[in-house]
């Protein structure tokens, strides 16, 4: 699924949060968004997910879905929700459910059978490290890292064609960070899904994203090809690390 | 910094907390409405005070004696109103737990501020005009002043009693029953045939204030001192509990409600609604308060005959049905504000959620129906009135209340033990008033025109029509919600706690 952004602008008072004239993310790409705090990464994700209203412009998704060619504006229809999975922050989690209950809830309201769900969850067993399933802990009582895992797994459950994760490496222990990197790459290769992630971890971003967009004050100031890890130096120079 | 300066600083900080609340700050109209409502209620109380005073003119003594004989009714109303508006010191002090301010000082500050709060003088809007009409002409200004001070002290004591009860409710919700039982017992004693048992002592007690007798003042001062001491001890303990609180991290039993699976997607939302009410302190408390009120109103109908007038029977019977909706459903979507982004990233979740909420609340109506059923059998409540209000609530009042799903955009915290002042928005208050009073007006007109049996048929008919068309009006609400979704989500995010 392609994501096409046109004349997208969002301001909060005087502050320009996002201002992108044109940008296209192609089907099957893993795009990494990097930028300093307040650069507009989360706002851009929320605009793509129609969670906030753009002042001007549009986000379109085009491509094949359910066997037919689609071209939709995310602000005009809910169709995109059928093929999009996302986790931005805790407001995506129903924290008075246990992880099991939350996954079952997501699966059932999306028409996934229990067997399909169990099958899907098995793929993430290693990532969940035995700390989520079968526990009687509510999500709100989990550690920040485990909450993050619940959000990521829930976003990936329905095998979406578009996957959006805001700072997925946050709060995760080193081995879980490594797991999620492999999971995302494998998911991208097996499903051909378009994946958007944002991160402050330059190394992880360079490791898994063949394309990286650098945001500053809401503008994409650089669109960096990174098929061989060549973005590393450019990003280090920009962030002065 | 001196203690007085610190006291003033805390006072200023608390004022800023209210002024800069995200929802309040960006809504100037809301500020105006808040003041308008205060002015409205004040005017209402002045009118009531004057009317009651003049209503009994010619029998001045009876006027204030009748009020004094039942002054605890005012205290009961005042007590329960505080649940909607007042925070406890433990919650306020927790905010400053990590600052270099002595907790004992904080606690004393908040208790003193509570005693000196304007809220304790609000009843003056009623008492001053009443006293001017009924006491000044008979006993003079000195008596009037003493009488007013007496009432003020009683409201101060009531406030401290409320804080104590509220803190106990924090430890265990069942403490909520203590004032309920006490107040019910007082009411029951006073409706006994020989109700002078309490009335005469109450009159003498209040007369003591007016006559500046030392005894009633001593009694109230002693009670206030005791209440202050008890509150200080309890609230201090509560602060430590709050700060060092260890959340119960594992559910004892994770109910799955598998019997709801047969309802498909809606069953999942029904489970969500049940878990929302069971696993979150705030939502649970609100739900049980609603249930408590249903039982309370039913008990009033069972055991007293003071409400046997046509109007009061209608009023109580309607309250029994609508009180849960008016208290819990009026804030529809406010709890969901905590996870609205997750819901909104899935297709049509809000429509299914609304359907589930409708059926959940339909199920709730079975409780007042079953409680009123024996009264229906004995003939105390007419079958048609009972059915009329049942169907009218489900099919007409619920659709009215559900409209709030389109307009509510302030997130309510799910699991905060101690609640702050959530008086609701203007629209919530208007809808509450409409659903509490409009049906009675309709019923009276209908019964007047069509008689005591056929008069209820329009209510039943409209109700059944509303239930039968629930998909249609819920879909309409859903579409309107979607049109306002960005503004609503912005509001939910801005008012999200923690």
Write up what this structure looks like.
The complex is a heterodimer of chains A (241) and B (498). Chain A is of the alpha/beta class. Chain A is built from 8 helices and 10 strands. Chain A has 2 domains: 2-83 and 160-239, Rossmann fold, CATH 3.40.50.300; 94-159, no CATH class. In chain A, strand 9 (211-216) and strand 10 form a beta hairpin. The longest helix of chain A has 18 residues, at 174-191. Chain A is globular and about 45 Å long. The relative contact order of chain A is 0.18. With 498 residues, chain B is mainly alpha-helical. Helix content of chain B is 76%, strand content 0%. Chain B is globular. Chain A binds chain B through residues 46, 49-53, 78-79, 81-82, 84, 86, 88-89, 91-98, 101, 105-106, 108-110, 135-138, 140-141, and chain B through 247, 249-254, 256, 265, 268-269, 271-272, 275-276, 279-280, 338-342, 344-349, 352, 414-415, 486, 489-490, 493, 496.
Biggest beta-sheet profile of chain A: 6 strands, mixed
Mind telling me the C-alpha Rg of chain A?
18 Å
Shape call of chain B: globular
Radius of gyration of chain B over all CA atoms, rounded: 25 Å
CATH class of the largest domain in chain A: Alpha Beta
Task: Give the number of DSSP strands of chain A.
Answer: 10
Q: CATH superfamily of the largest domain in chain A, called what? A: P-loop containing nucleotide triphosphate hydrolases
Structurally, the number of domains of chain B stands at: 2
Count up the domains of chain A.
2
Mean pLDDT across residues of chain A: 93
Describe the sheet with the most strands of chain B. none
Q: Averaging pLDDT over every residue of chain B, what do you get?
A: 82
Shape of chain A from CA axes? globular
The secondary-structure class of chain A comes to: alpha/beta
Low-confidence parts of chain A: none
Indicate the proportion of strand residues of chain B.
under 5%
Number of helices of chain B: 24
Architecture (CATH level 2) name of the largest domain in chain A: 3-Layer(aba) Sandwich
């Amino acid at each position: 699924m392609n994501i096409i952004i046109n004349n997208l602008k969002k301001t909060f008072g005087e502050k320009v949060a996002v201002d992108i004239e044109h940008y296209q993310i192609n089907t099957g790409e893993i795009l990494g968004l990097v930028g300093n705090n307040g650069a507009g990464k989360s706002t851009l994700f929320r605009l793509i997910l129609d969670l906030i209203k753009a002042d001007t412009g549009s986000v379109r998704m085009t491509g094949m879905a359910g066997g037919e060619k689609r071209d939709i504006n995310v602000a005009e229809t809910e169709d995109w929700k059928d093929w999009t999975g996302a986790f931005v922050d805790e407001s995506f989690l129903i924290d008075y459910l246990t992880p099991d209950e939350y996954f079952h809830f997501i699966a059932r309201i999306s028409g996934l059978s229990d067997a399909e769900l169990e099958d899907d969850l098995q793929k993430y067993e290693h990532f969940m490290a035995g700390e989520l399933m079968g526990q009687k802990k509510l999500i709100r009582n989990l550690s920040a890292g485990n909450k993050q895992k619940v959000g990521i797994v829930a976003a990936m459950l329905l095998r979406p064609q578009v996957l959006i994760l805001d700072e997925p490496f946050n709060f995760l222990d080193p081995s879980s960070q490594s797991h999620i990197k492999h999971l995302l790459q494998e998911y991208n290769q097996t499903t051909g899904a378009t994946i958007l992630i944002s991160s402050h971890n330059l190394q992880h971003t360079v490791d898994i994203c063949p394309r990286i967009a650098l945001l500053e004050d809401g503008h994409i100031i650089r669109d960096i090809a990174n098929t061989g890890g060549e973005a590393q130096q450019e990003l280090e120079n920009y962030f002065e690390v | 910094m001196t203690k007085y300066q610190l006291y003033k600083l805390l006072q200023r900080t608390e004022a800023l907390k209210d002024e800069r609340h995200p929802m309040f700050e960006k809504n100037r109209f809301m500020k105006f409405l808040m003041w308008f409502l205060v002015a409205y209620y004040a005017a209402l109380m002045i009118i009531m005070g004057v009317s009651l005073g003049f209503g009994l003119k010619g029998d001045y003594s009876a006027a204030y004696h009748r009020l004094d004989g039942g002054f605890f009714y005012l205290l009961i109303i005042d007590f329960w109103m505080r649940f909607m508006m007042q925070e406890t010191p433990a919650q306020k002090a927790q905010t400053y737990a990590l600052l270099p301010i002595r907790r004992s000082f904080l606690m004393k500050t908040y208790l003193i501020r509570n005693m000196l709060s304007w809220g304790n003088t609000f009843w003056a809007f009623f008492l001053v005009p009443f006293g001017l009409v009924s006491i000044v002409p008979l006993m003079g200004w000195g008596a009037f002043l003493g009488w007013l001070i007496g009432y003020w002290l009683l409201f101060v004591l009531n406030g401290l009693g409320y804080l104590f009860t509220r803190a106990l409710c924090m430890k265990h919700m069942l403490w909520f029953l203590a004032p309920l039982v006490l107040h019910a017992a007082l009411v029951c004693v006073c409706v006994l045939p020989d109700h002078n048992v309490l009335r005469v002592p109450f009159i003498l007690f209040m007369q003591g204030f007016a006559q500046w007798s030392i005894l009633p003042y001593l009694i109230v001062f002693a009670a206030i001192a005791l209440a202050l001491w008890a509150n200080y001890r309890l609230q201090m303990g509560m602060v430590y509990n709050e700060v060092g609180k260890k959340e119960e991290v594992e559910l004892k039993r994770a109910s799955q409600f598998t019997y709801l699976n047969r309802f498909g997607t809606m069953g999942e939302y029904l489970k969500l609604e049940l878990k929302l009410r069971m696993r979150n302190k705030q939502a649970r408390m609100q739900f049980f308060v609603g249930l408590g009120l249903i039982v309370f109103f039913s008990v009033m109908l069972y055991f007293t005959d003071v409400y046997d007038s046509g109007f009061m029977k209608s009023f109580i019977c309607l309250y029994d049905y609508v009180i849960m909706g008016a208290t819990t459903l009026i804030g529809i979507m406010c709890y969901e504000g905590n996870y609205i982004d997750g819901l909104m990233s899935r297709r049509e979740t809000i429509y299914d959620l609304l359907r589930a909420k409708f059926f959940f609340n339909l199920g709730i109506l079975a409780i007042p129906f079953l409680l009123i059923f024996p009264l229906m059998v004995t003939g105390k409540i007419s079958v048609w009135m009972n059915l009329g209000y049942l169907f009218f609530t489900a099919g007409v009042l619920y659709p009215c209340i559900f409209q709030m799903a389109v307009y509510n955009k302030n997130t309510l915290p799910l699991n905060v033990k101690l609640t702050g002042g959530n008086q609701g928005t203007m629209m919530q208050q208007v809808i509450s008033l409409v659903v509490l009073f409009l049906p009675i007006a309709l019923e009276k007109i209908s019964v007047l025109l069509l008689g005591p049996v056929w008069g209820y048929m329009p209510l039943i008919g409209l109700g059944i029509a509303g239930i039968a068309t629930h998909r249609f009006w819920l879909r309409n609400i859903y579409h309107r919600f979607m049109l306002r979704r960005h503004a609503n989500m912005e509001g939910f995010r801005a008012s999200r706690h923690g």
